[in-house]
Amino acid sequence: MTEKLSLTELQLIIRDSLYLALPEAYWVIAEISELKENYAGHCYLELIEKHPDEKNVTARMKAIIWSNRYRFLKAFFENSTGESLREGLKILVKTKVEYHELYGLSLIISDIDPAFTIGEMAMKRQIVIKKLEQEGVFSMNKEIDFPVVPQRIAIISSKNAAGYSDFINQLKGNSFGYVFYSALIETSMQGTETEQGVISALDKIAINAHLFDLVVIIRGGGSQTDLSWFDSYNIAYHVTQFPLPVITGIGHDKDISVTDMVANRSLKTPTAVADFLIDCVSATDNRIISMTSDIIDLSRIIIEKNRNTIETAGIKLLPLTRILLSGIKDNLSGKIIDIINFGKEFTFKAVLIPANHESRLYSAVKSFSSGKETVLKRNSQSLITSTVNLLNKNNLILSGLASTLNLLNPENVLKRGYSVTSINSIILKSCDDVKKDDLIDTQLYNGSFRSRVVENKGKK
Asked: Residue 191's domain is classified under what CATH number?
């Protein structure tokens, strides 16, 4: 072909060929990768198709929704799905191919099927839920014991979110005066940064998990689109693996996200989360008050029961004590009498000894003097002196024996500070006869008393 064409002529040929080959409108499935609205109200999109691995892009094309159509389709789509058209959303659109000499190939969108998007979102959501269930982690955070007194709270939220302010004000203004300690880990709670922000906040809290009782993920109300960020598998998985209970208060009354499903507790709003925590502390407070009352009542019953037992034992013990003391007294009196009789017998024998010596001496002298009168006379004086000395000596011995007998008198022994100790009416003679906690009786010169053995220090 030798005919020469201008660039415009070539593009017109391309356009006419496309219109001839593709004269009709087509329903096309694609994902929105970019979306912009210009000042005139037109909506410019970039549509893509991804490989099943959800990473690699296999097709890409520009698309336009003119302003007069965009106003209607936007409102219709949002009312039907609860979602706004946004990046990352998969849609089914009715489109016609258009080619322009300056702007190239694009798709003109004239209609959107919201039912497809709803089904696609539900399918993605179910895939995430099924994956968590297959991995066996879906209920892991729910299995963590919830703290009895949840007062140390790590909060994941945006500092400027109305939900965060409502939560803090509700906690601090509780009518009970309970004190809560909170730390805010700030992050974006909507848009494409939500997933990475929430995961990063969870990681920061996990490093200092010992400082907190639980984690609260809260945000204010918003569109269904905002809620869909919390259908993320990665956020939900991090929640299931978290070492502390996680409570969500994302702020949707009708629907719950996958993050809500895997959390330890899920409540509709941040204020509801605050009320729940206050109620937990209040319930514990009431249990403590009830337990205190029960302990007081039980203590009174035990004290009264023991008082009656002690009084009854005292009444029974008094006559037994009297009988026991009487028996000990009689036994001690008998032993004293035996000691006195022994002393008298010893004294009587001691008196007879000098008399016997004198009688024998007299007989010996008389016998000796009959044959040896001269010697007797010569030694008579010496004999008298010896006799006197012997008598004096025997008198001294007798006096000493009398004094010893007097000292051995049980009454005098007791008066000098000695005592007689017995157990079960048997006088103790060795430490081996008594052991710890035995009851022993001690007799003094003016009475007796009973004591309990605390320690036996006998020689080993």
From this structure: 3.40.50
